[in-house]
Specification:
Layout: H1 2-18, H2 32-43, H3 53-66, H4 73-87, H5 97-107
Length: about 110
Protein backbone atom coordinates (compact mmCIF):
# COMPACT_ATOMS: atom_id res chain seq x y z
CA UNK A 1 0.00 0.00 0.00
CA UNK A 2 2.96 2.29 0.60
CA UNK A 3 3.64 1.79 -3.10
CA UNK A 4 0.16 3.16 -3.84
CA UNK A 5 0.94 6.42 -2.05
CA UNK A 6 4.29 6.63 -3.84
CA UNK A 7 2.61 6.01 -7.19
CA UNK A 8 0.00 8.65 -6.40
CA UNK A 9 2.72 11.16 -5.62
CA UNK A 10 4.63 10.27 -8.77
CA UNK A 11 1.50 10.66 -10.87
CA UNK A 12 0.79 14.02 -9.30
CA UNK A 13 4.27 15.19 -10.25
CA UNK A 14 4.17 13.70 -13.75
CA UNK A 15 0.58 14.66 -14.59
CA UNK A 16 1.42 18.04 -16.16
CA UNK A 17 3.76 16.35 -18.64
CA UNK A 18 1.10 13.87 -19.68
CA UNK A 19 -1.59 16.51 -19.97
CA UNK A 20 0.13 18.79 -22.46
CA UNK A 21 -1.87 17.60 -25.45
CA UNK A 22 -5.17 16.64 -23.88
CA UNK A 23 -7.47 17.97 -21.23
CA UNK A 24 -7.07 16.07 -17.97
CA UNK A 25 -9.77 13.53 -17.28
CA UNK A 26 -11.20 13.52 -13.77
CA UNK A 27 -10.11 10.56 -11.69
CA UNK A 28 -11.22 9.19 -8.36
CA UNK A 29 -9.10 10.19 -5.38
CA UNK A 30 -6.98 7.45 -3.85
CA UNK A 31 -8.61 5.48 -1.07
CA UNK A 32 -6.27 6.72 1.61
CA UNK A 33 -8.29 5.09 4.38
CA UNK A 34 -7.80 1.68 2.76
CA UNK A 35 -4.09 2.35 2.33
CA UNK A 36 -3.72 3.36 5.99
CA UNK A 37 -5.67 0.30 7.10
CA UNK A 38 -3.52 -2.03 4.99
CA UNK A 39 -0.17 -0.53 6.04
CA UNK A 40 -1.06 0.19 9.68
CA UNK A 41 0.14 -3.17 11.12
CA UNK A 42 3.64 -2.60 9.72
CA UNK A 43 4.06 0.56 11.82
CA UNK A 44 1.85 0.03 14.90
CA UNK A 45 4.35 -1.94 16.97
CA UNK A 46 2.45 -4.08 19.48
CA UNK A 47 -0.90 -3.53 17.74
CA UNK A 48 -1.86 -0.82 20.24
CA UNK A 49 -4.25 0.92 17.86
CA UNK A 50 -2.19 4.12 17.71
CA UNK A 51 1.23 5.31 16.58
CA UNK A 52 3.62 6.98 18.96
CA UNK A 53 5.90 9.70 17.62
CA UNK A 54 8.71 7.26 16.71
CA UNK A 55 6.33 4.97 14.76
CA UNK A 56 4.73 7.96 13.03
CA UNK A 57 8.19 9.27 12.18
CA UNK A 58 9.19 5.93 10.66
CA UNK A 59 6.06 5.88 8.47
CA UNK A 60 6.29 9.48 7.27
CA UNK A 61 10.03 9.27 6.65
CA UNK A 62 9.45 6.15 4.53
CA UNK A 63 6.72 7.93 2.56
CA UNK A 64 8.92 10.96 1.96
CA UNK A 65 11.97 8.87 1.06
CA UNK A 66 10.05 6.61 -1.31
CA UNK A 67 8.49 9.60 -3.05
CA UNK A 68 11.91 11.15 -3.63
CA UNK A 69 11.35 14.01 -1.21
CA UNK A 70 13.78 13.21 1.62
CA UNK A 71 16.77 15.19 0.44
CA UNK A 72 17.77 17.02 3.62
CA UNK A 73 17.62 14.95 6.84
CA UNK A 74 17.25 18.04 9.08
CA UNK A 75 14.31 19.34 7.03
CA UNK A 76 12.72 15.89 6.98
CA UNK A 77 13.05 15.57 10.76
CA UNK A 78 11.45 18.99 11.29
CA UNK A 79 8.69 18.20 8.78
CA UNK A 80 7.91 14.90 10.53
CA UNK A 81 7.90 16.54 13.97
CA UNK A 82 5.62 19.36 12.80
CA UNK A 83 3.38 16.85 11.03
CA UNK A 84 3.01 14.78 14.20
CA UNK A 85 1.81 17.85 16.10
CA UNK A 86 -0.71 18.67 13.37
CA UNK A 87 -1.90 15.08 12.99
CA UNK A 88 -2.32 14.42 16.74
CA UNK A 89 -5.52 16.47 16.96
CA UNK A 90 -6.22 15.67 20.62
CA UNK A 91 -2.59 16.22 21.71
CA UNK A 92 -2.32 12.89 23.54
CA UNK A 93 1.00 11.89 21.88
CA UNK A 94 -0.83 9.15 19.94
CA UNK A 95 -1.92 9.18 16.31
CA UNK A 96 -4.93 7.02 15.51
CA UNK A 97 -5.76 5.58 12.09
CA UNK A 98 -8.50 8.21 11.73
CA UNK A 99 -6.08 11.05 12.53
CA UNK A 100 -3.48 9.71 10.10
CA UNK A 101 -6.08 9.24 7.37
CA UNK A 102 -7.35 12.80 7.81
CA UNK A 103 -3.79 14.16 7.70
CA UNK A 104 -2.87 12.24 4.55
CA UNK A 105 -6.13 13.19 2.85
CA UNK A 106 -5.40 16.84 3.55
CA UNK A 107 -1.98 16.44 1.88
CA UNK A 108 -3.03 14.30 -1.09
CA UNK A 109 -2.67 16.05 -4.41
CA UNK A 110 -5.57 15.75 -6.83
CA UNK A 111 -4.86 13.41 -9.68
Amino acid sequence: MLRHLIAIGALAIAAPAFAQDAAPAPTAPPDIAAIVQADWPAYDQGAKGYLNQAEFSTWLTALKTNSGGADDPAKTTKWVSDSFKVTDKDSNAQVTPAELTAFLQSKAKPR
